[in-house]
């Protein structure tokens, strides 16, 4: 058994499994004569990609997931992870290679948040110091302060925070494959959008193969490199989101995707793919005389008579009228007037909604460090809609 599982704690990058997942003709019948819950599905998820399973309640999504990590044994067919059948792995080995975020969060109520996150590292026999460091790293990653939240119990967290901890727990052993069963379903739309963006950011930093179950076509289009639409245990269409929206395989998929496909295709493009409007930036601490020189040379072009003040780190603080500048540029007391501030990985759909809600003419686009990279307004989004060929 141990010979099959050579990766020691602290493995180097060369030992990290690639994480290609193949399901072939996979079937599950819960009773001998009943309808198959999963009925001969085949699909391949390339390493590092996110595959979203979507379909109506009861169509077999959870059953398919649970066969991958052998919580349920298939009736027939096979599942291979990097070319090796999951039947050749012990449950312990699978737990190390596959992170699982279940539909109902499933944190252990009698363990602290830190202990919940440390479940897999403990199982893997990591020493205390390494486990502690990994737990802190993950809590930081999901935006929960380890000192404040680590000692709390799950009941002392909000639903969205619990879902974050579920995600951290699944990531703890750094598995090459993640199974996520409606991980963000139990939270309000705003928290869900934030969790989705956090996840996408994480996924970019540390790509993993992911099977992600969703009920929500918008979420599927946003999160998936490919989307498998399921119906009654079968896969009706397996395609990248752009193709699903442009060419639904049949009426069922077309219905599922919905009538507002043009609007949905806004979720396929992110702000970083757009030509942004340059922001008229002045930095806190700049001499106003120098700012005026930039204005006169035309290098700095105010928008509606205002410029955007950024703090010394380049993060947006406030729009202020050029006429109010004097002496040295300062972050004004009414800072926070640069809203909405949008991470560059925000989809056009989410950006549009944020701009409309705020009533501002422009959203301020920032990079991963929060520094301003440009502005987006309805014109920039409109141009992207009118160029659908480039959107995909
Ligand atoms: N342990 C079980 N015993 C018998 N039937 C089961 C069992 N688990 C699931 N089923 C049946 O298999 C089918 C697929 O269930 P599954 O949980 O995979 O659906 P799902 O697509 O995940 O649905 P939802 O979106 O509601 O979570 C359903 O008809 C369900 O009743
Ligand atoms: Mg389910």
Describe the 3D structure:
The protein is of the alpha/beta class and 392 residues long. The protein has 16 helices and 16 strands. The protein has 2 domains: 261 residues, Rossmann fold, CATH 3.40.50.300; 120 residues, CBS-domain (Roll), CATH 3.10.580.10. The radius of gyration is 24 Å and the shape is globular. The site of magnesium ion has 4 residues, from helix 1.
SSE blueprint and pairings:
Elements: E1 21-28, E2 38-45, E3 50-54, H1 61-68, E4 76-81, E5 84-85, H2 91-97, E6 98-101, H3 113-117, H4 119-123, H5 128-141, H6 146-149, H7 159-171, E7 177-181, H8 189-205, E8 209-214, H9 217-223, E9 226-231, E10 234-239, H10 241-246, H11 251-257, H12 261-264, E11 281-283, H13 288-297, E12 306-310, E13 316-321, E14 341-343, H14 348-358, E15 362-366, E16 372-377, H15 378-385, H16 388-391
Parallel strand pairs: 3-8, 3-9, 6-7, 7-8, 11-12, 14-15
Antiparallel strand pairs: 1-2, 1-4, 4-5, 9-10, 12-13, 15-16
Bound molecules: adenosine-5'-triphosphate and magnesium ion.
């Amino acid at each position: 058994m141990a010979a099959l599982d050579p990766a020691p704690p602290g493995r180097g990058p060369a030992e990290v499994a690639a994480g290609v997942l193949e399901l072939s003709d996979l079937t599950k019948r819960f009773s001998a004569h009943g309808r198959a819950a999963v009925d001969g599905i085949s699909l391949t998820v390339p390493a590092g990609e996110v595959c979203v399973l979507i379909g109506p309640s009861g169509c077999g999504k959870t059953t398919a997931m649970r066969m991958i990590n052998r919580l349920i044994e298939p009736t027939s067919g096979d599942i291979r992870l990097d070319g090796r059948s999951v039947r050749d792995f012990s449950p312990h080995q699978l737990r190390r290679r596959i992170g699982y975020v279940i539909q109902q969060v499933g944190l252990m109520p009698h363990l602290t948040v830190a202990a919940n996150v440390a479940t897999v590292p403990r199982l893997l026999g990591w020493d205390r110091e390494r486990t502690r460091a990994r737990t802190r790293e993950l809590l930081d990653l999901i935006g929960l302060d380890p000192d404040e939240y680590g000692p709390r119990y799950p009941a002392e967290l909000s639903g969205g925070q619990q879902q974050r901890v579920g995600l951290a727990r699944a990531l703890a052993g750094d598995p090459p494959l993640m199974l996520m069963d409606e991980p963000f379903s139990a939270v309000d739309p705003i928290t869900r959008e934030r969790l989705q963006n956090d996840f996408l950011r994480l996924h970019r930093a540390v790509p993993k193969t992911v099977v992600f179950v969703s009920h929500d076509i918008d979420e599927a289009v946003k999160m998936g490199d490919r989307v498998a639409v399921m119906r009654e245990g079968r896969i009706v269409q397996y395609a990248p989101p752009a193709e699903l929206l442009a060419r639904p395989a049949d009426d069922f998929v077309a219905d599922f995707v919905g009538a507002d496909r043009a609007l949905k295709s806004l979720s396929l493009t992110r702000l970083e793919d757009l030509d942004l409007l340059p922001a008229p930036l002045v930095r806190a601490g700049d001499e106003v005389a120098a700012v005026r020189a930039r204005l006169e040379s035309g290098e700095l072009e105010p928008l509606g008579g205002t410029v955007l003040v950024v703090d010394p780190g380049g993060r947006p603080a406030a729009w202020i009228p050029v006429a109010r500048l004097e002496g040295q540029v300062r972050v004004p007391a009414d800072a926070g007037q640069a809203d909405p501030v949008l991470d560059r990985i925000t989809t056009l759909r989410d950006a549009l909604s944020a701009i409309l809600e705020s009533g501002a003419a422009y959203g301020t686009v920032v990079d991963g460090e929060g520094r301003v990279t440009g502005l987006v307004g309805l014109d920039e989004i409109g141009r992207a809609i009118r160029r659908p060929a480039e959107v995909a």
